[in-house]
Amino acid sequence: MTSSKDSQHRFAKALDRLEGDVELLRDMAAMTTPKMPALLGDADECMGRLDCAGAVRALHQLKGMISTFDSDHVPLKIQELLDVGRQGDLATMRERLQTHRVAIDELIRAIRAFAENTA
Amino acid sequence: MSKVLVVDDDPSIFLLIRKALADVAQMVTAETAAAGLRELGQDNFDCVLLDIMLPDRDGLSVYGEIRDHDPRLPVIFMTSEASSETAIEAMQLGAFDYLAKPLEIRTLCHLVENAIEQRERSSVPVEIVASDEADCTRGELFIGRSRVMLDVFKDVGRVSKQDLPVLVRGERGTGKELVARALVQHSDRSAGPFLAVNCAVLTDSLLESELFGHEKGAFPGAESRRVGKLEQCHGGTLFLDEIGAMSPVVQGKLLRFLQEQRFERLGGNEELTSQVRIVAATHRALEPMVADDDFREDLLYRLNTVTIDLPPLRERSDDIPLLIAYFLNQAKREFDKPDLRGVSPEAVDLLKAYDWPGNVRQLRSVVRRCVLDASLPVIVADVLPEDIRRGESSPEILGLAPEDRDGPSGRAMPSLVDRLLREKSSNMYGETIAYAEKYLLLRVLRETDGNQSRAAEMLGITRGKLRDRIATYNIQLSDGVRLGNPR
User: Taking CB atoms and an 8 Å limit, are A64 and B11 in contact across chains?
Assistant: First the structure.
């Protein structure tokens, strides 16, 4: 299990932006984590019915939520998906989502753990 | 307490903004564009934070409706899609500012406080009104109602019909060429040609060829005959700016022309005549140059039969509001800012209190930049350059760019040119050459530890010319080579 200190260390940059307000970051995490898997699901569903614009919308919203916690790595990967999606290249978007899914899921788990860890 | 409307489809952002603005403003939230516009119609807000990608509409298009509703309402765009295109588009539309996500509490707070403050300040009645009707299409007009400027107008009226040379004296940026043009306009030569030559930007031999022309083979590279400005200007007026920078050889030839209206092309034997009125200008006192043998006394006496002295702007501060109004209306039209209402009283006071080392040209540039930078319909004190708010001269007034506060490094040339393009400067050539020249002179003078003879030799110009350029840019040679404040 991830300790509170580990979580805070992982999200140190995010905390800096919030002037060290752990409570605020935790509240934001609690509010957004339930929506993140749903947005990923929306993106999958849209891609399934060849709705590139819909997938882009869902991924854009996910990127916005995630960037509060991690502004460097995962948002850049999602941006990559958005770039190909905006060009209408559904196949590449689907393929890259598969590649980046592990990292995205891992981050969502870490944010959830941070939200739940009140120690 | 001030009220801020936040439109974003991510509710966690509301938590952050509520916390950040707890002491600053009350917050109303909306998760869609439609809800946001509804709130806007029901309440009065002091600032709007608007996400660019909303579920129902594009935030950039929502902005248009907000602006129609209240053009003075500052709108700050937010987006996680921070690209140069969206930032440029948002600012072009007239956004107050643009925030990239993830948001940072300190930046957000500072920006919203600033927006609210500007909203308050721009709500006061304007001191100078930006008019849509004012005639400001005639370029840089001669403007002023002060006693000193009335004297100038009277002088122009008195001497314009006389076919005598005129010497116009005044600091840089005071409008010496405008005096020359006014003299032409009100003279019997108004239908004749008007040509201008800046004696400081040409080398001695080029200036000589520019004025008197040259024959084929007169010097290496002279592949064909060239007709000089004196010939081209027959029946008209030739404006010689920065006459103090002219070399003794050219001074001698010009004196002969003034006395006899005769000259020869370089490398030619044929004596030519031309009926040209000479209007010369200088920002330097020529008398000390005569004492130093850098300027011919007989030429000075020929030129200063009629002298018009242009006052620096600081000596006619009563004209500043008039000039601001003129440049404001000009920029409003040129930069297509229909919502621009005017300048706040506080900003006018600061502009009036400033000493304007770059004179009217500098005031014009500042007003144009403020019009470009203002995101609200009123130009308030905050939009003014920092040095004007503090009452100090900035590197840009010294003709430098913000990058080189310690003197021109040469590196800021691209940003200088970009700025001049942005401001649609009408003096790009002069300002860019001046920047390069300052860099060159400082570099060489530093190399020679301030020794002017050695520097002149290295530069390939006369000592007199170097002295003129040192004086022009007020280069200080004591305690190390550096730039002083402009004169």
Answer: no
- B91 and B110 Cβ atoms separated by less than 8 Å: no
CA-derived radius of gyration, chain A: 15
Distance CA B244, CA B300 (A): 10
**What is the C-alpha separation between B378 and B117, in angstroms, rounded?**
12
What does the alpha-carbon distance between residue B332 and residue B370 come to, in Å, rounded to a whole number?
A: 11
Crossing angle of helices A90-116 and A74-86, in 10° steps, is 150
- Which of B23, B80, B110 is the best mutation test for A, with the most CBs of A within 10 A? B80
Cβ–Cβ gap B10/A14 under 8 Å: no
Scanning B217-312, the segments in alpha helix (DSSP H) are 229-232, 248-260, 286-291, 297-303
Region at B342 (left for phi over 0; alpha for psi -120 to 50; beta for the rest): left
Asked if A59 reaches chain B (Cβ–Cβ under 8 Å), the answer is no
State which amino acid sits at residue B49: L
Question: How many contacts, defined by CB atoms under 8 Å, are there between A and B?
Answer: 52
Query: A71 vs B53: CB contact, 8 Å cut-off?
Result: no
ipTM of the shown complex: 0.89
Pairing of strands B128-129, B342-343: antiparallel
Whether residue B73 contacts residue B59, with contact meaning beta carbons closer than 8 Å, is answered with: no
Q: What is the mean pLDDT of each run of 10 residues along chain A (119 residues)?
A: 66 92 94 94 94 93 92 86 90 92 94 81
Closest CA to B33 of B17, B18, B48, B12: B48
Q: What is the pLDDT of residues B172-216, one digit of tens each?
A: 889 898 889 888 888 888 889 999 999 988 888 889 999 999 998
Three-state secondary structure call for residue B476: strand
Q: What region does B356 belong to: left with phi over 0, alpha with psi -120 to 50, or beta?
A: left
Instruction: Give the tokens for residue A101.
Output: 């899914």
CB contact under 8 A, B80 and A63: yes
